[in-house]
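Sequence in, structure out.
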Amino acid sequence: MKYILNILFALLAFGACQQSGTEEWPDDLAGKKAMIKEKRAALKALEADIALLKEEVMELDTTQQRETRRPVKIDTIGTENFSRFVEIQSVVEADDAVMASSETGGRITNMAVREGQNVRKGQLIATVDMESVNKQLDELQTALTLAEDVYQRQSKLWEQNIGSEIQYLQAKNNKERIEKSMETARFQMTKANVYAPIGGVVDMSMKEAGEVAGPGEPIVKIMNTYRVKVIADVPEKYLPVVKRGQIVDIHFPALNEDRTLKISSVGRTINPANRTFEAEVELLNKNGIFKPNLMAIMKLKDFEAKDAVSIPLVLVQQEVSGKDYVYIKADGPNGAYAKKVYVETGERSEGNVIITEGLKSGDQLIVEGGRGLAENELIELM
């Protein structure tokens, strides 16, 4: 049978050569194009005849059939939701970070906390020396004693219609003014102690005992790390797809930890320096493992398609002309064979690609053994 087939191929080739040698070619452009079209049609018909003859030969020659079947693996195509994610480098920040400072100036006589210490709201942080205020109170007390005595004397004289009214009013005003000054000084004395405005951890100590702190000058920095936030600088091109409440996956490489959370806040402005906006995610930190400035990776979904046909990108092959194709299993008279299907591809993600045209749910895609296959080649399942 192989001998008969070889003779047939030789005759076909000889006939084609004879025809090509005797046939005259047209001289005009339209004629040449028409002849090319005819030749291609003839070639296609000849290839179809050869394929049919091969099938008949394979059917008759069982030994050759077993030898030439290509072992492959297949997978039935289905539809699924296709998502694509983009990874954005992020950083952990404390939810609250405030400075504890003295409202009045003075030398620090006592530091009640140290760096790294946990503190609660209202806990004593430091004590400021109020010696100058104490001296001021002593002076005011002496002045008040004299002012009260003068006022009492002027009051008695005024009751007896002795002296002028202005003297009485001046004595009264002087006494009241000193009393107000003493109230102010006593209130300043209550500011000798500096308390924690929030609960958290003492992140940094700016002053030590014995140093002088001015009014409003920070003494320690306190951070609330019970609740932290993960902040990502997102490129502005993703602005249409990033929304408040959107679910995101966050990976912490240093801790090998993963969290699935919601975006709590989206920045309202674009940073002109790097054309990004902030996306913020709140995160409970009961154990304190998420330290401020810890690096994180936020995965944002920037594309989604429902009921899409997607396959591994590695299965898509390409012709010299640039057309993409895959092989699927088809059944013929001689059994299973590889059918070449041209496809159109769409979005890609993590090694998979959407097939927009060419494949449908239920097709049996050749997933192993497809490289080097020929169209209509007989196959067998591994």
